[in-house]
Automatic annotation (TrEMBL):
It comes from Lentinula guzmanii. One of its GO terms (molecular function) is dioxygenase activity. This is Clavaminate synthase-like protein. Keywords: Dioxygenase, Iron, Metal-binding, Oxidoreductase. The keyword Secreted does not apply. It comes from the Eukaryota. Residues 30-361 form the TauD/TfdA-like domain. Pfam families: TauD (PF02668).
């Protein structure tokens, strides 16, 4: 490998033994202007380490698109499709603004911006838990610096289009301010001190590895069915206080009131996705968009004692689906397993969107301007699930 990698600085809250391979800073390379050999090394490093950071980079939207596309040369359109701006009923609508000359690169952030990359004026809205969670942090506690994770997710349309392989996130302008304390508010007392407006990441590999054997067996045998137009479907519903999925209060839009959809375009993905380089399995489920779990029976000759769903199951009760997903995913967002990135302006992060979950965090005032360029591309193929050897190993 010809590139120079350094460890990411972990916060005091992170348990280093869980981050041995997770995250690297790439030194001495401009990611928008590198040789084919360096680009190949960057690709390998991303899949080995899940997150790559480049510091002090000046990057045009064109360079960002080109770098993102290098991971999947046959990909072309933005990960949520080309029509997101007209889908006003989508929960994503207000958060994203396409850069006119490179619409696959989206402007995200907070506050009013003027004359930026061809956009004369745009009001950016930092996604806050207050517009999405069922309960919210009180104004009094917010003034003391308490906040929450917004929504743990994979960047993916999860209808018609395949989940992007990589997301690139470039910090043009980073708001200044004190750390905030992210509260889980789920009865555990868990809290995490985070930099203002951090992006928080967790490893999908760790999410799988920390499961007890009986849930590893379920994970390796399960496929997840997503809603049609999931971000329209979920828009009226409200999330759990950890941002890890939705409360089951029957608020979702009925399927027959969604924009037109067809069964063929509904996404059914394995619960575990295989890393293309390391072959490790990551638990990759967007908990807010899932509707059904399809669990295969145990392979023949596998011990059945203590096994869950030994004969397989098709769980289509939304509350049951969410309860099982939460039981499987919540341990991996424990404070010591979260990497909250402390952004500096001109940081570029590449993350393996098929190997991590991430979320926006925090609360910003309108005058705390945050400007980021984000790019991901609907992939040319669906993710690969566990192999038959994986199923024998883990079931
Ligand atoms: Fe995202």
């Amino acid at each position: 490998m010809t590139i120079n990698l350094a460890l990411l600085p972990l916060p005091a809250s992170a348990e280093p033994s869980h981050f041995l391979t997770f995250g690297r800073e790439v030194k001495d390379i401009h990611p928008g202007n590198c040789t084919p050999e360096q680009l190949e090394d960057i690709k390998q490093a991303l899949y080995q380490h899940e997150i790559l950071l480049f510091r002090d980079v000046v990057l045009t939207p064109e360079q960002q698109l080109s770098l993102t596309k290098a991971f999947d040369p046959d990909s072309e359109i933005y990960g949520h499709g080309a029509k997101l701006e007209t889908e006003t009923s989508s929960i994503l609508h207000s958060a994203l603004h396409a850069i006119p000359r490179v619409p696959q690169v989206q402007l995200i952030g907070n506050g009013m911006i003027h004359n930026h990359e061809g956009l004369s004026n745009a009001r950016l809205n930092h996604s806050t838990h207050k517009t999405f969670h069922k309960t919210v942090v009180s104004l009094e506690d917010e003034a003391k610096g308490f906040t929450r994770f917004y929504r743990w997710h994979i960047d993916a349309a999860l209808y018609d289009l395949s989940p992007p392989k990589v997301t690139t996130l470039y910090a043009v302008r980073v708001p200044k301010g004190p750390n905030q304390t992210c509260r889980y508010d789920d009865g555990t007392g868990d809290e995490l001190v985070v930099p203002l407006a951090t992006t928080a990441f967790v490893s999908g590999q760790t999410m799988f590895q920390q499961l007890p054997p009986e849930l590893k067996s379920v994970a390796v045998r399960t496929k997840v069915k997503y809603a049609p137009h999931p971000y329209v479907w979920m828009a009226p519903a409200r999330a759990k206080p950890t941002g890890l999925g939705i409360e089951s209060d029957d608020l979702e839009s009925p399927f027959d009131q969604l924009p037109p959809w067809v069964e063929d375009k509904i996404k059914i993905h394995p619960m575990l996705w295989q890393n293309p380089v390391t072959r490790m399995l990551s638990f990759q489920v967007h908990p807010s968009c899932a509707t059904e779990l399809i669990i295969s029976p145990l392979p023949t000759n596998t011990a059945r004692e203590r096994a869950l769903y030994p004969d397989g199951a098709h769980i289509d009760d939304l509350k049951e689906v969410r309860n099982l997903l939460y039981r499987m995913q919540r341990p991996a967002i424990a404070p010591n397993l979260v990497y909250p990135h402390k952004w500096n302006e001109k940081d570029l992060i590449l993350f393996h969107n098929r190997g991590v979950l991430h979320t926006v965090v925090g609360t910003l005032r309108p005058d705390q301007v945050r400007v980021y360029h984000q790019c991901n591309l609907a992939a040319s193929e669906d993710p690969t699930g566990p192999t038959s050897e994986d199923i024998i190993q883990w079931a």
